[in-house]
Amino acid sequence: MAAFVSTPVVAYTTTSAWIAAPAIGSGDFAWLEVAKNEGDVRVVASFRGDRLILRSAGKTTPIVHQECAEPPCNTVQAPVTGADGSFAYAVAFPGTGGFVANVSAAGASNVVAEDRSEPSEITEPHLVATSAAAVMWAEDNQIITAPNVGGTGVVLVTAEQAGGEITSLAAGPAGVAWSAKTVAGGTLIGYRSAVGALSVRAAEPDRKVATLYSVALADDGTVVAIRRTTAKGRQQVTLTAWDLAGVARPLVASAAFGKGEPFEATRPSVAGTRAAVRLRGGKGGTRDELWIADLATGRTARVTAVERSTARLTDPSFGAGRLVWAKDELSSRGRLLRARVYSAAVRP
Questions:
Q1: I want to staple 329 with a disulfide (CB 3.0 to 4.6 A). Which of 12, 100, 115, 337 is the partner?
Q2: How many CB atoms lie within 10 A of CB 115?
Q3: Strand, coil or helix: what is 273?
Q4: Which alpha helices (DSSP H) does 75-123 contain, by range?
Q5: What is the pLDDT of residue 121?
């Protein structure tokens, strides 16, 4: 751990709610919560909840708090951090409406765009990404952008150009990247550069062999994503980088674990030349582990690990020179005991 981050500190603790998807801006934290009795261990690895919480200057403020009518609680999409330290997120009230929004460090939430779907078709929040002063989101398998203060949305990637059902989205100075399920039964990673050039960075035509999902984007245009493979009744996920020419480089892989275990998406985070990810470790994947890989040197280091029988880790997230994650501690019956947000300074 010393190779990449300093000793972590506890930034927040609760015994009343599951915590998922923490992110950090300019000294401020945002995360999702689901009430203790309305969630389970599946919440920890998800990107949605029924509460969006902001902690700034030692004060904890609910930005979105919608009572969960029926689990799973999918009211709000996980916050993502922008270059200016603000957070972008999306909200859906099934059958009613939804919106994409931005929240400042002071807790001021601004609606960027209203959901244009028919209310009856609204079931969950849009995927969101943010870069500098703009917010991007996936709607009707298009990628749309608008200023984070609101304004007319512009289509960056059409549904035809996206190549299928968009499953993840990332943005940065170099452009926009996404993963998609294709009609033919495969998966791909698409990329639109900052100057508008479109390309398919990677593709897996047969999902029975491998699938691609959960993209992140480095400043130089390198795409980092998860490649999941299945063989002989086992599955394994590998954090993989694709350069501008589409050449793949595996960075760090999980332990192999049972193919029949419930699928948990894992979402990497990238800052500078470093990528952080949550993976299954230990014999048979009995541990949750957080890893950092350096894209420039190829070096890797494990940040922390827990036995999944006693705790679960959220996906890590870079921001403001720090790495943040949460640990949800469990009783012997799998019930929530306590959830904590951790923060560690990133070493040069």
A1: 337
A2: 21
A3: coil
A4: none
A5: 84
Q: What is the mean pLDDT of the chain?
A: 93
Q: Give the pLDDT confidence score for residue 9 in this predicted structure.
A: 96
75/190: higher pLDDT = 190
Separation of alpha carbons 202 and 227, rounded Å: 10
Q: What is the pLDDT of residue 105?
A: 63
Rounded CA-CA distance 314/329 in Å is 11
Which two tokens mark 314?
A: 């959220």
Match 């300093």 to its residue by tokens.
6
pLDDT above 70: residue 69: no
DSSP 185-224: S-EEEEEEETT--EEEEEEES-TTTEEEEEEEE-TTS-EE
User: What are the residue ranges of helices labelled H in the chain?
Assistant: 159-162
Query: What is the rounded CA–CA span in Å between residue 270 and residue 214?
Result: 12
Dihedral of alpha carbons 252, 257, 260, 266, sign: negative
Compute the radius of gyration of the chain from its Cα atoms: 19
Query: pTM score > 0.90 for this model?
Result: yes
Residues 276 and 38: their CA atoms lie apart, in Å, by 29
Give the position of tokens 């700034």.
56
Size of the chain in residues: 348
Token code pair at residue 117: 């779907």
| Category of 196 on φ-ψ map: left (φ > 0), alpha (ψ -120 to 50) or beta | left
Whether the predicted pLDDT of 1 surpasses 60: no
Lowest mean pLDDT, pick from 19-33, 68-82, 221-235, 326-340? 68-82
> Which amino acid does the sequence have at 143?
I
Alpha-carbon span 141 to 157, nearest angstrom: 9
